[in-house]
Each structure stands twice: as C-alpha cells, then as structure tokens.
TrEMBL record:
The keyword Signal applies. Residues 111-144, 181-200 are annotated as: Disordered. It comes from the Bacteria. This is Zinc-binding protein. Keywords: Signal. It comes from Pseudomonas turukhanskensis. Pfam families: ZrgA (PF10986). Residues 119-144 have a biased composition (Basic and acidic residues). Coiled coil: none annotated. Residues 1-20 form the signal peptide. InterPro entries: ZrgA-like (IPR021253).
Length: 200
C-alpha cells in the first residue's frame, strides 16, 4: 500500500508543473510551509485507507519553537494525543466500519526535549551570527507529520472523508490541500471549514 501513497505526488505532477509557470503562484499554492495551510495525501486501496497529514506546527499548537514552558508542553501533549486518534479528526461513514491499524507522528516538538533544545539553541546562535535575522527566522519553522493506516471492513461504503472535526479541533488550520487516489482515479482539492468533504 505504501508505494501507492508515495506515487501520489508523481500522479499529480502535471498539476504542479502547470502551477510552476507562475513562480509567485507556485510559492503560494505549493509552498512547503505556509501558516494556516496543511496538506493531506489519501490513498484507498482495497480495504486499506492511508492518510498523510502535514502541517506547520503553528497550525496545530500555535507556535514553532521548542516547548520549554509547562503551558507549551501541555499544548503539544494535547495536540499529540488528538493526532494519535485519527477517527476523532477525520469523519468517515460508519457503514465503512473503519478501524485504526497504524499511527505514526513525527515532529521536532515530539522528540527528546533536552536534545531538541540543545540543538535548537546551538543552531539559533550560529544562524544569528552568520546569516542575519532572515535565516534565523527560517530556522524556527517546524512541521508536524502524521501518517495513518485505517482498515475498513466495508470499503465500498467509504464514499467520503470529512475534515470537519479536524478544522474544529485546530482552528488555526484554515485550508487543507488534499490529494486523493481512490477507486475513481485521482483528484485534488482545497478543503476548508465551509467545504470540508473529500469524496472518493
């Protein structure tokens, strides 16, 4: 199943090339780090649904620096707990009888805090001395990547994926650029709180 999900960016390459004609548009729509905007890749193959959600940390926890204070650590822990439960963030038809088979979360914010702080402080100082404020700002960018594998006993009933719970839980997330490979081929779209549904 993994090769199918990894093939998704290549399947939609013509769309990326078309948008690359205007460099400003490319940065706005395909930029790897845009606050308020996340990315979702979804692939349905047989009874397996794979989802990959990528977001700037700002969208999910409200900051991108290492969580040093108790308040920041609690915020990160709460977001991580919610991200570990994909069926509370992505609404699928109950008739599809989907269950969570696998969850993987990756972010500097979820790592060993002592090591992350030490590395962050060292790099921060180097960037500040050598490259000025612009590069120092770039160093603060961090992302949260979540990968899910769901097993659906009745995949024919899996007609849609609704991101309403995701937008409600993370109100700083305003748009999700979604790409999907399913039984009806490939498609892409921009999902928002007002238009949160992706149809298979």
């Amino acid at each position: 199943m993994r090769p199918l999900l990894l093939a998704l960016p290549f399947a939609l390459l013509p769309l990326a090339i078309a948008q690359a004609a205007d460099p400003v548009e490319e940065h706005a729509s395909l930029g790897t780090h845009e606050h308020g905007v996340g990315r979702l890749n979804a692939a349905l193959d047989g009874n397996t649904l794979e989802l990959e959600l990528e977001n700037p940390s700002m969208n999910l926890v409200g900051f991108e620096h290492a969580a040093k204070s108790a308040v920041d650590q609690a915020t990160v822990a709460g977001a991580k707990t919610d991200l570990e439960n994909p069926l509370s963030l992505f609404a699928v038809p109950a008739a599809a009888k989907c269950s969570v088979a696998k969850v993987e979360l990756h972010s500097p914010l979820f790592g060993d805090k002592a090591d992350a702080d030490e590395d962050h402080d060292h790099d921060h100082d180097d960037h500040g001395k050598d490259n000025g404020e612009e590069h120092e700002h770039e160093h603060h960018h961090s992302e949260i990547h979540a990968s899910y594998q769901l097993t659906c006993a009745e995949p024919a009933a899996l007609t849609s994926l609704d991101l309403t719970p995701l937008f409600k839980r993370f109100p700083s997330l305003h748009q999700v650029q979604a790409q999907l490979i399913g039984p009806n081929g490939q498609q892409g779209g921009e999902l928002t709180a007002k238009s949160p549904r992706l149809n298979f």
